[in-house]
Amino acid sequence: MIRSELIQRISEENPHLYQRDVEKIVSTVFNEIIRAMARGDRVELRGFGAFSTKHRDARTGRNPRTGESVAVDAKAVPFFKAGKGLRERLNEEG
Question: What is residue 94's predicted lDDT score, i.e. its pLDDT?
Fold first, then answer.
């Protein structure tokens, strides 16, 4: 599902909301998750999962095309851990 499909589905399930308001809500939620992660905070949505960042140290990598050594800077990468409720729903029998 992409963002526009999410907005469409929420709009259909909530006909009392204008689509432009749903777009604003979805964008605000995503932007707040991104801001929190950029600050190094963890964002937990109960029953769904937790978003956090992991730190990767600087290292020496290889250019796959030439085989040349390349310095790769340290960086933070996004990480998602599924919650118990999500895992259970994905693994339901039937």
Answer: 58
Q: What pLDDT score was predicted for residue 69?
A: 96
What CA–CA distances, in Å, run from 50 to 33, 55, 82, 83? 10, 16, 7, 7
pTM for the predicted model, two decimal places: 0.78
Please give the CATH topology (third level) of the domain spanning 44-94: HU Protein; Chain A (4.10.520)
Measured in residues, the chain has a length of: 94
Task: Report the Cα 5 to chain-centroid distance in Å.
Answer: 16
Q: Which residue do the tokens 């964002």 mark?
A: 43
Mean pLDDT computed over 45-62: 96
* Domains of the chain by residue range: 1-41, 44-94
